Amino acid sequence: MKDHLIIFDTTLRDGEQSPGASMTKEEKVRIAKQLEKLRVDVIEAGFPAASQGDFDSVKAVASAIKDSTICGLARAVENDIARAGEAIKPANSGRIHTFIATSPIHMQMKLRMSPDEVVERAVWAVKQARRYTDDVEFSPEDAGRSDLDFLCRVVEAVIKAGATTINMPDTVGYNVPEQFGALFKNVMERVPNSDKAVFSAHCHNDLGLAVANSLAAVSNGARQVECTINGLGERAGNTALEEVVMAVRTRQDHFSVDTRIHTPEILNASRLVSNITGFNVQPNKAIVGANAFAHESGIHQDGVLKHRETYEIMRAEDVGWVTNKMVLGKHSGRNAFRTRLLELGIEFETEEQLNDAFLRFKELADRKHEIYDEDLQALVTDANNERLENESIRLMALRVSTEMGEAPHATLTLWVNGVEHTANAKGGGVVDATFKAIEQIIHSGTTLELYSVSNVTNGTDSLGETTVRLEKGGRILNGQGSDTDIVTASAKAYINALNKFSMDDNKAHPQREETI
Ligand code: KIV
Ligand code: ZN
Hints:
Blueprint: E1 3-4, E2 6-9, H1 25-37, E3 42-46, H2 52-64, E4 69-75, H3 78-87, E5 94-101, H4 104-111, H5 115-130, E6 136-141, H6 148-161, E7 165-170, H7 177-190, E8 198-203, H8 210-219, E9 224-227, H9 241-250, E10 257-258, H10 266-277, H11 298-306, E11 326-328, H12 334-343, H13 351-367, E12 371-372, H14 373-388, E13 393-401, E14 409-416, E15 419-426, H15 430-442, E16 447-455, E17 464-472, E18 475-483, H16 486-501
Parallel strand pairs: 1-10, 2-3, 2-9, 3-4, 4-5, 5-6, 6-7, 7-8, 8-9
Antiparallel strand pairs: 11-12, 13-14, 14-15, 16-17, 17-18
The structure holds 3-methyl-2-oxobutanoic acid and zinc ion.
């Protein structure tokens, strides 16, 4: 009988801390619903004390999700714990995750607290959190660089105070697998009440070892892994959920644990997170990269054709890869459209939303002969973007002209809070001219940080998906757009990012705060 390995997803909290990956409340709820379909055990939905926006997002996720525990992060201070307690209230099952640093460098240089003060504060924070929920997780931040004796002292004290999960983070991604595994073994052996809590690993990928370190922890007694979809996270990212889950699932001969993850939903989760954040997945990324299951060499192809397992250790379909299927065309009706979307796990809240998506589908079918699942997904994302952002700016018309030897030119009309404005601009290319024309109307004061285009399917009539990342006063937001015309897709993405600026609010960053 295998032990259950708890999968704790922190895409919406630690993942979102990655510069440029900030998400709106609606986007977080969409991702949370996908994580629920994936059967993630715990969703860390955010850091409620960071901002009103974060609080609202955690609360919205707690209200929308039924089958996963919803967790809110809190520093070891009263207001953080109270805000987290309040935000997780609507959840069927809610957890507070409180933390304080325990490494000498963090205690001396960041917290300016003595070890005794840290133990006292940790115990106080856990007891305080227990007033809101019985499910309390404690993290000794920078555990990977903490003194073992001191770490054991803190862990024993917080378990006694009521912590039910002990999460030991390698906050700066400094550990190597043997050492990190030994840390779990030592702490669990030396702490007398360690059997009263679940031990958890939380790794950062600065040396490319986050997954290896997490698995070493599992081999040494950890029964929860904290991870993010696509390994999203600041600097080099966090432990990639899909890699840990598939390592454990594929190597059942080696690991004495298994997860409850519904792996065919992995690719959908990866695509959704990549689409919303604008962080593209590299082609050779394990499990979810475009080439992860592509055999190029003749010897490999020959082997796979003769007997699949000669070169394949996993089945592509087990993580959600399916061969492109032409599902619908110009003559498909509303029912066929709705049925296919349901098969893809896409549901609409109202009939009006379905009608809107169907109209978009018909327009697309006029321009594009063959409609694939990926097209449908992009089309629905585009509709969601426009609907959910409560747009104050909308693209009404766009005309571009380009001729060899002449400066490209764009004429564009925007609807801004009910009033139409038209502008003309020249640029280095048609996209540049379009963005300049938008700025002539909006004067947003933002700086373009990233512009990327990818095609949803193969072929020159493919939908182009564009991401635009804008920065203003330290805030960074992404916009997305898709269209068979790349310039229109680019304009939509730029406008989507501008619309998000009017909704976003400033937020604090838990690990960058100077005091606890
Ligand atoms: O990396 C870290 O230490 C964290 C803690 C807040 C758990 O993210
Ligand atoms: Zn972290």
